[in-house]
Amino acid sequence: MTFKRPTSAGWVTLAIAGLCVAGLVDVAFAEDAPAAAAAAAPVPNKGDVAWMLVSSALVLMMSIPGLALFYGGLVRTKNMASVLTQVFAIVAMVGVVWTLYGYSLAFTDGGSMTSWVGGFSKAFLHGVDANSTVPTFSNGVVIPELAYFVFQMTFAMITPALIVGAFAERIKFSAVMLFILLWVTFIYFPIAHWVWYIAAPDDVAAAAKALAAAGDAAAKTAAQAKLDEVTGAVGWLAGAGALDFAGGTVVHINAGIAGLVGAVLIGKRTGYGKELMAPHSLTMTMIGAALLWVGWFGFNAGSNLESNGVTALAFVNTMVATAGAALSWLLCEWAVKGKPSLLGICSGAVAGLVAVTPASGYAGPIGALVLGLIVSPVCLFFVSTVKNALGYDDALDVFGVHCIGGIIGALATGILVNPALGGVGITDYTNITGNNAGTYDFATQMLAQIKAVVATLVWSGVGSAILYKIVDVIIGLRPTVEQEREGLDITDHGERAYNY
């Protein structure tokens, strides 16, 4: 095969062809520029999406059947169906409310009120579709907004369901439904916004980089104003630096104090202190506790919103803290009462789950284990000694386990996040040169944690008292003594959990 040199005319032809090709390439590049820019935007990782959907299913399992069976086994036979129905109905109702306006109130910008509550910009899921995304806690990482929406829905479902254990066996079903509807609207959604409505890491980083790149005083002033705007458009407890990885304040303290207020205002069960009110099925309670433990991995590890090393840390912390707390409660009860009980080890497991919830993604495994070992003796003291001394009828120990355990966990989070104790340290997205590493200060962090605990206790405690009174005026809280003695299964629902 021979190669012929082009003639002069041939060179001209080649040159013209080359210019044409170059022009076509330029046009192609110009046309592809928007596509390249779009491709540069973060896209969800399939593994993160899968983990978030699995986590959502796990948290739903915590409510039904987990919590329903745990509570149901602890009440008397005549009220088993009543408790199961209350938990199931709360899950369904809150799912509807969350879709209509709850998600929007909790996780959107509320304008001038954004420190306290969101707005209605996403009511009826306006603008939320299969293509919309939300940020995680890492720069450049997003997940589908629908995955975040349904994950947070399961939290909104289980939190009010926790409350019913405090006044179990002595409240009308209609009163439960009205109270919970009001409670999630005026108590849960705002507190979730206070704690979990934060600035997107990428927005903070972009504003911080613009500030660092500003060349003159005017540019720096404008850039600082933008950074302040981004970091200021958050829930007020998030802005104060309070740490709550998966719901120590939002879920457990919130529900626990609401339960105590309800138990006091509704009053004691008929025959309380005079009649035997033993759990009718510890078998059911053990099954429920086990389902709670398994589901809690979605609750805590899922709260990282992606699948990485921190997810594994939260998973491990959930495991070791719960094991430590279950063993601790068993041994303490054995030492004090002379016998280790199934109810005790189940209660200890739940106490450990509650306590590690706010710290799960911040503490190291040894810190989580110590937290689990410590929380059980304190909760045991409250559900026995303190409750008996004060005489309130917290039927299923919602306050003694969830509120007290949540307080211990929330405060311990401020300690265990310390890198010197194996914690992950504080994150500062404005630190664009140091891998988002912030400075841990014990006094500052503990002040933020205390502020979050007190704010939750006051808002939920006082707000719940007002809502109970409103419900009592509208439809009444308690059934008659005769109805209560017969059992709520028959009087409220016209059926029995067992027919034999």
Structure notes:
Helix 3 packs parallel to helix 5 (173-196) and helix 14 packs antiparallel against helix 15. Helix content is 68%, strand content 1%. Residues 1-31 have low confidence and may be disordered. With 500 residues, it is mainly alpha-helical. The chain contains 17 helices and two strands. Strands 1-2 form a two-stranded antiparallel sheet.
Average pLDDT level: 92
From N to C, what is the helix and strand string?
HHHEEHHHHHHHHHHHHHH
Strand element count: 2
Helix content: 55-70%
- How many helices does DSSP assign? 17
- β-strand percent reads under 5%
Q: What is the topology, as strand order, of the major beta sheet?
A: 1-2
Main pleated sheet: 2 strands, antiparallel
Shape: globular
Radius of gyration of CA atoms, rounded to a whole number? 27 Å
Distance between the termini: 99 Å
Q: What structural class results from the helix and strand content?
A: mainly alpha
Oligomer: single chain
Low-confidence stretches: 1-31
